[in-house]
Amino acid sequence: MTDEIYIRRCIELAKKGLGRTYPNPLVGSVIVYNGEIIGEGFHEKAGQNHAEINAINAVKNKELLKDSTIYVSLEPCSHYGKTPPCANKIVETGFKKVVIGTLDSHEKVNGKGKQILENAGIEVVSGVLEKECQILNKRFFTFHQKKRPYIILKWAQSGDGFLDKDFQPTPIGNPLTKQFVHQLRSEEHAILVGTHTALTDNPALTVREISGRNPVRILIDFDLKVPADFNIYNQEAETLVFNSVKDSEEGNIKFIKTEKENLVHHLMHTLYEEQIQSVIIEGGRFTLQQFIDAGIWDEAIIIKNENLLLEKGTKAPEFHFASYRTETFRDNIMEFYKNF
Description:
This protein has about 350 residues and is α/β, with parallel strands linked by helices. About 30% of the residues lie in helices and about 25% in strands. The chain has helices at about 1-15, 50-60, 85-95, 110-120, 130-135, 140-145, 175-185, 195-200, 265-275, 285-295, and strands at about 30-35, 35-40, 70-75, 95-100, 125, 150-160, 190-195, 215-220, 240-245, 250, 255, 280, 300-305, 325-330, 330-340. A 10-stranded mixed beta sheet has the order 10-11-9-8-7-12-6-13-15-14, sandwiched between helices. Helix 3 (about 85-95) packs parallel to helix 4. It is elongated and about 70 Å long. The two termini are about 25 Å apart. The relative contact order is 0.12.
């Protein structure tokens, strides 16, 4: 039970890095001496210290480390990347016990970090709150196990099931749901729309309602119909444009030539190669329906304004699943779905 308390704290810490650690996972760590936390840390940004190192550095009296237990939400890494292996640092520091939330399925780790610790004579306990720790890194695990990004579908619809009125852009959400969506954008790696949405709404697909990082923008525009002066082509974020015309890189814009047939599968393969770990599908009905029909989605978020009746316009996607959670944002209801 005590181990669970500290691993839960590791998860809380890890979440502070949401949206900033790509391509690395979210990891939190705490160091406990005599029943008290004497140091804690999390992986704040790719290329910077990992959680275990930040936790060790946070301990004021380093003499206590050799008699302390270090808790970490994900198996310590065992390979050299932009930083040295954390498993080696733990051995070098002299910890007698390590408690791990879940092992890392990444081929470069996958039990090797735990093995390094055990070979050094350190007591290792693993699998504490394992499911919660795996959900914490659902993007990372989906990316490495399924060889595709973690997919989140998102749209807003009226009480009578329309995305707009008379096929023209129509506000459906409210300021609270707008803030939620911008928070979501800052936490996920990328956001995707199709030609119709880009032409009709001229979205920037950036984070404006909150303080956070802009996601990578993905545009599906086979015939390159979206004008170069539209918001999606501004300098505010890296942008990938899937099209049937050209392959080229122009500043922050990368054009990627692809085929219309089996588009979703081509997209998943290419986005995996581009190291994109998660994508919000915020396109119109056609784009969303392609992912729904292909069964390639992990979560869905539907914003509903039950009091708004639009009567005529673009119908919301056909989506026959049961939500596992709902939240009320003033006059909007937000429904959450999962496909795992």
